Amino acid sequence: MARIIAGLGVCLLCLALAGAETARAGEPLRFGVLGVLDTLPLQVAAHDGLFAAHGLDVELVPFASAMERDVAIQAGRLDGYFGDLIAALMLLEQGRPFPVSLVSYRTLPGQPMFGLALAPGRSGAALADLRGASVGYSRSTIMEFLLDKISDANGLPEDYFNRLEIKKIPIRLQMLLSGQIDAALLPEPLLSLARLKGGDTLLTAENLDIPLTVLCLHERYYENGAGEFRAFVAAYRDALQRLRENPERYRSLMAETCRIPAPLVPNFPVYAYPDPALPSPAEVDEVQDWMITKNMLGARLAYTKVVASSAP
User: Fold this and answer.
1) pLDDT digits over 46-82, tens only?
2) Which strands, in side-by-side order, build the sheet including 211-217?
């Protein structure tokens, strides 16, 4: 009897998990987002009813951290998500079938989404004076990837800085402003906030020309002609167009959904975002090769497994 009950329990669990991985008829497309600048086009599409205009019911589900988002993905509670290419590859390797739908942001000159901020006491210091300086970052994340790429671009060996792992970005910023560390790798708008508080920007990722963040949808959205995927991309493209035509119209939405600190709201730029496109095979391989060297990925995943079967 105990074996029968246990067997029934396993079957019910399998059915529940299978149900979580299939399309939920009559329910919205639940898309996980973080409160960061890269997600502004998604917020515009939802705010202006552009998803609905293309026949989609999309619910943006906010998460306070990537870890919380990943738990929701693993539990089958999301149909798509915003993240970075490293997180996407790790989830794919774990068997989560969410290929990359499009690049949401790539580094662009004049728009430093990430950079090395200097503490107020180090403001104005030259790169040559900072050998051995303490730098806060987070290991095995897009932050470490960017720190390596920024270092490579400037001819710095990996041990040029004294790297200190400080996973939580608010704590990293606090330690920087209080002078407990010399520098920190930060995203915007915190990079600008550090300058406002007396710090400085040493180096940025703006000239690296790499896809930083991506949007991913469950593989079922590429089946049967990929109609919902194409509608999603069409709404996203309309949002991009609106941002380009009248960026100031969305300043308050950006401040609210992308967590812009109040002192920065009046003058912080409304960024330009790339047209929907997939990362190239070379770009995907570059990230995978780096992950393999860091023991974050067992082996390269096929490009056809990483990206959507339909082009945006």
Assistant:
1) 999 999 999 999 999 999 999 999 999 999 999 999 9
2) 58-63, 29-34, 80-84, 211-217, 100-106
Q: Is the pTM of this model over 0.85?
A: yes
Helix crossing, 66-74 with 85-93: angle to 10°?
30
Q: Strand, coil or helix: what is 104?
A: strand
Where are the chain's structural domains? 26-107+210-306, 114-204
CATH placement of domain 114-204: 3.40.190.10
Tokens, residue 30: 């639940």
- Top CATH class of 26-107+210-306 equals alpha beta
| Equal fold, 26-107+210-306 vs 114-204 | yes
The DSSP code sequence of 135-174 is EEE-TTSHHHHHHHHHHHHTT--TTSSEEEE---HHHHHH
Residue pLDDT, tens place only, 205-231: 999 999 999 999 999 999 999 999 999
Three-state secondary-structure class, residue 183: strand
Q: Report how far Cα 211 is from the mean position of its chain's Cα atoms.
A: 10
